[in-house]
Amino acid sequence: MPYEPAVWLSRLMPWRAPVDPNAIHAARAAVADLKPAVVVTGGSRGIGLALAKCFIEAGCTTVIVARNALKLADAVAELKAATGVEPVSILCDITEPNAADVISAGLANANLYLDVLVNNAGMGLAGPFLEQTPKDLSSLLAVNIESLTRLTRAALPDMIARRQGGILNVASLGAYIPGPNQAAYYASKSYILSLTEAIASEVAGQGVRVSALTPGPVDTEFHRDMGAERSLYRIILPSLTPDRVAKSAYRGFMFGQRVIVPGIFNTAFVVALKVLPHIVTVPMMRGLLRREFFRR
Ligand SMILES: NC(=O)c1ccc[n+]([C@@H]2O[C@H](COP(=O)([O-])OP(=O)(O)OC[C@H]3O[C@@H](n4cnc5c(N)ncnc54)[C@H](OP(=O)(O)O)[C@@H]3O)[C@@H](O)[C@H]2O)c1
Fold first, then answer.
1. 120 backbone dihedrals φ, ψ, rounded to 5°
2. Is there a domain that residue 15 lies in?
3. Pocket of ligand 1, candidates 40, 47, 289: which has the most ligand atoms within 8 Å of its Cβ, to mutate?
4. Which of 30, 105, 259, 291 is 20 to 30 Å from 233 at the Cα level?
5. What is the C-alpha separation between 91 and 67, in angstroms, rounded?
6. Residues of the chain with pLDDT > 90: what percent?
């Protein structure tokens, strides 16, 4: 029987639940005819597209998931042109209750199984909380919180059974602080960071990586889509490219880092947010996030 770290860890640490090597081999045998895949939700543009490119370049079979068929087809063509490898694509709205089944079926069709899940798809809402419609708030919670939680819950048991794979959840620098003028978005990212760190602790030593990525501003269409392009943070805070963020995320994930903060400026910003009191930082964020800092 091959060397299995999880089995030896459970023998060395008797307080851990015993691990049955036969169960691990049975779980792996169940997918022996399939290839492991990295699934990136929101892989049709921005950070998700860059993450998909990174995983393809690292030799992983990669699957991108998004709702818009045309954009998905463009992304497949772009990734093929950039890497020489055509990724699999799955058309799916991850807020649908059966999204995990749709993704599983798409993988099975391509003779793949879910090895690494990148929960990247997300949406933002800019402006005062009371200006957000209940419908938009529900959509934000559905994508950023409910879907991510459901997909994570659906994916983890098989990964743990195989003692392989992992989950990379895309949070944000906004996870570390309340964000007046993007209140629901910032709160949703705090949820993602908290959930991910907690799950990472629960499954430690079981052969599965669980990480959160907390990027600062990144140059994507995300800010324009939520009408925040003229906010002060877009003008004065340095932005990273999606490729830079993706490379940092990939490296951190492979090293098993639980929380990945891309860039030195963002790392310093996180330290400042942890050290300074909210009485100072929350009004500062309110100014940075105001939708139209310089009114015309
Ligand atoms: N950009 C930043 O500055 C920044 C900073 C920190 C964290 N983040 C986080 O990073 C992630 C990606 O951001 P981004 O800037 O790359 O965003 P983006 O350019 O707006 O891309 C979002 C992607 O998610 C997909 N998507 C949205 N809703 C979906 C749904 N219900 N089902 C399936 N796919 C869906 C979109 O495709 P379709 O519309 O075709 O579905 C698109 O591919 C988000 O979670 C965001 O919160 C971004």
1. -110, -30
2. no
3. 47
4. 259
5. 5
6. 90
